[in-house]
Amino acid sequence: MEIVEGFGIGVVVILGALLILFVRRALVTRSGGIIRLSVRVSTMLDGRGWSPGFGRFAGDELRWYRMFSFAIRPKRVLSRKGLAVERRRLPEGQERFSMPADWVILRCTSHHAPVEIAMARSTVTGFLSWLEAAPPGAVSPRMASQDWPAA
Fold first, then answer.
1. Distance in angstroms (rounded) separating the CA atoms of residues 134 and 90
2. What is the pLDDT of residues 105-140, one digit of tens each?
3. Once rounded to an integer, what is the mean pLDDT over residues 76-87?
4. How far apart are CA 47 and CA 21, in angstroms?
5. What is the torsion angle, in degrees rounded to the nearest 10, for the CA atoms of residue 15, residue 17, residue 21 and residue 26?
């Protein structure tokens, strides 16, 4: 009888963990602006260290949540004000095995700290539009530094 009770408790614990994961995901994704996004959390080995997750746009922030985590808070927050894209590239070597074939890797700087994010090619345009957007009447720092011809 003890084996059956232990098995039953194990099943209840597993179902509880799955319920928590689904409730967490529902809370985080209840509003729009969600994209599939992988972030490179470790650069110790070439092509390794990618963690899958999803990003949520919230005002001037891109909040990244790990796919398989119980945390309700984002693991990483990227502010639009301090974020700039340095380079785009396709997955190379081992990276091709850890992400879909149509993904693009963006190397960005965030307050002078490099960060690599990967997303679908179709998502990059929207991400870049969000990054360059500014509220009405505000001057984007990326636009202010450029020389514009006098009208």
1. 28
2. 999 988 778 899 999 999 999 889 888 886 654 544
3. 87
4. 28
5. 60
Task: Give the DSSP H/E element, type plus range, for residue 24.
Answer: helix 2-28
Count of C-beta atoms within a 10 Å radius of residue 46:
10
DSSP bridge partners of 108: 85, 115
Is the full-model pTM beyond 0.70? Answer: no
What is the reported pLDDT for 82?
81
SS3 119: strand
Give residue 45's identity as a one-letter amino acid code: L
Which amino acid, one-letter code, is at 64?
W
Q: What is the pLDDT of residues 137-151, one digit of tens each?
A: 454 444 444 443 443
> To which residue do tokens 């990244």 refer?
64
Are the CB atoms for 53 and 62 separated by under 8 Å? no
104: Cβ–Cβ under 8 A, 6 or more apart, which residues? 88, 89, 90, 118, 119, 120, 121, 124
State how far the alpha carbon of 2 is from the alpha carbons of 15, 16, 55, 120, 139, in Å.
Answer: 20, 21, 44, 50, 69
